[in-house]
Amino acid sequence: MAVQVRIPTPLRKFTDGRDTVEIDGDSVSAIIANLDVKYPGLKDRICDEDGSVRRFVNLYVNGDDIRFLDNLTSAVKEGDEISIVPAIAGGR
């Protein structure tokens, strides 16, 4: 079952420049693990050494922040879209 994963510009060096990739998995954590198999090094940019999503990375399933779902255990199904969004600091 393939899920579309939207890759932000800073991480596209891991996906040969692709902005969207299809990855199989039934949960966000499975998608991240499979992403790392296909695109080594990507998981380290998304998750910290404990396996938690890095503080300055946001993950969305169909537009919903996984922090308000079941975090990394959030279920995904065929046709879902996961967006990886690095937080951007700014302002005054």
Give the SSE order as H and E letters: EEHHEEE
Indicate the CATH class.
Alpha Beta
Rounded radius of gyration (Å): 12 Å
CATH superfamily caption: Beta-grasp domain
Assign the CATH topology.
Answer: Ubiquitin-like (UB roll)
Could you say which structural class the secondary elements and strand pairing correspond to? alpha+beta
In short:
This protein has 92 residues and is α+β, with helices and mostly antiparallel strands. It has helices at 28-38, 42-46; strands at residues 2-6, 20-24, 57-61, 64-65, 81-86.
Secondary structure layout plus pairing:
Blueprint: E1 2-6, E2 20-24, H1 28-38, H2 42-46, E3 57-61, E4 64-65, E5 81-86
Parallel strand pairs: 1-5
Antiparallel strand pairs: 1-2, 3-4, 3-5
Fold and architecture overview:
- This protein has 92 residues and is an alpha+beta fold.
- The protein has a single domain (2-86), classed as Beta-grasp domain (Ubiquitin-like (UB roll), Roll), CATH 3.10.20.
- The protein has two helices and five strands.
- The radius of gyration is 12 Å and the shape is globular.
What would the keywords be for this entry?
single chain, 92 residues, alpha+beta, Ubiquitin-like (UB roll), 5-stranded mixed beta sheet, 2 helices
